[in-house]
Design goal:
The strands form two sheets. This protein has a three-stranded antiparallel sheet, covered by helices on one side. A two-stranded antiparallel sheet has the order 1-2. 20% of the residues are buried. The chain is α+β, with helices and mostly antiparallel strands and 148 residues long. The chain is built from two helices and five strands.
């Protein structure tokens, strides 16, 4: 219910305080409950964004290690075993040894040119660094160097 009060030449709008506007109205403590619900929702949303960032970080790190291993294996004085080992070392240093188990390197043809392909199959982190085994698969490629 709205009432208009006139004081001199000023008009003021005032909301009336009816009989249900007191502390006995049944809304005591609702601000605390709303605060808890909003904070818990924001906490879950923040943790989900952080988990997505962690999963993307792991993916990008493993992909970069696979590409570096392929470049290392493609050098003229290097081989597939050295490229796979370089990939394992980089992944172990950056993310941990649990992510460096399944690393394979092979010679391939990419775009009609000889190349080296390093393939890494690793867990996809879903809760912290724990997640689905073999949930993430990345490949790194590099053009193969040859002498002569």
């Amino acid at each position: 219910m709205k009432r208009m009060l006139r004081t001199g030449s000023l008009l003021r709008l005032r909301l009336s305080s009816g009989p249900s506007a007191g502390p006995a109205s049944g809304e005591c403590g609702s601000a605390v409950a709303e605060f808890v619900m909003v904070v818990s929702l924001l906490t879950v949303l923040t943790l989900a964004v952080l988990q997505l960032a962690l999963a993307l970080h792991v993916r990008n790190t493993v992909l970069d290690a696979a590409a570096e291993g392929a470049r290392f294996a493609s050098l003229a004085d290097s081989g597939l075993a050295q490229g796979a080992e370089r990939t394992r070392d980089l992944i172990t240093t950056a993310v941990g040894p649990a992510y460096a188990h399944d690393v394979t390197a092979r010679y391939a043809v990419q775009g009609g040119f000889p190349s080296v392909q390093v393939r890494v199959v690793t867990p996809l982190p879903l809760l912290g660094l724990f997640g689905v085994a073999r949930g993430l698969e990345v490949e790194g490629h590099a053009a193969r160097e040859t002498l002569g």
